[in-house]
Design goal:
Blueprint lengths: L13 H22 L4 H28 L5 H25 L3 H33 L3
Helix pairs in contact: 1-2, 1-4, 2-3, 3-4
């Protein structure tokens, strides 16, 4: 299942939206590498990018929340931290069991579903707060 960026995912905060687009593209690249038989090396290379980019993205969001004194910062950070653990566990499972098309599907579905729900919930609320409190 490929993921499609559309306007329903736009928080209205350009940097956050651009990073979300990159996360969705990386998910789709993992799916494509798996289904087209590009091999384990390509799957793991893309997975490593996705993991690193997710960590960087979360750090950027959290800096924004601190800058604007976002009242739900600690909750949002805990959600990010919990998800990083989940991604680590899924990545370890892929490395231990090998990236079968079925397991890649489980991993990308779990990450994709979480990401879409997080964007439409937690990130929408955060972006609305930040936009409302920006000076300019």
């Amino acid at each position: 299942m490929a993921y499609q960026w559309d306007s329903s995912l736009e928080t209205g905060y350009e940097k956050v939206d651009n990073q979300h687009k990159q996360l969705i593209a990386a998910l789709n690249n993992i799916i494509e590498a798996s289904t087209s038989g590009k091999g384990e090396a390509e799957i793991f290379k893309t997975l490593d990018f996705l993991t690193g980019y997710t960590i960087m993205h979360f750090a950027d969001e959290e800096k924004l929340q601190v800058k604007y004194d976002y009242p739900d910062y600690l909750i949002h950070k805990r959600i990010h931290d919990d998800f990083k653990v989940t991604v680590g566990e899924l990545t370890a499972r892929l490395r231990n069991e090998g990236p079968s098309e079925e397991l890649v599907g489980v991993v990308t579905s779990a990450v994709g579903s979480w990401l879409l729900n997080h964007i439409k919930g937690d990130d929408f609320r955060m972006a609305a707060f930040v936009k409302a409190h920006e000076v300019g």
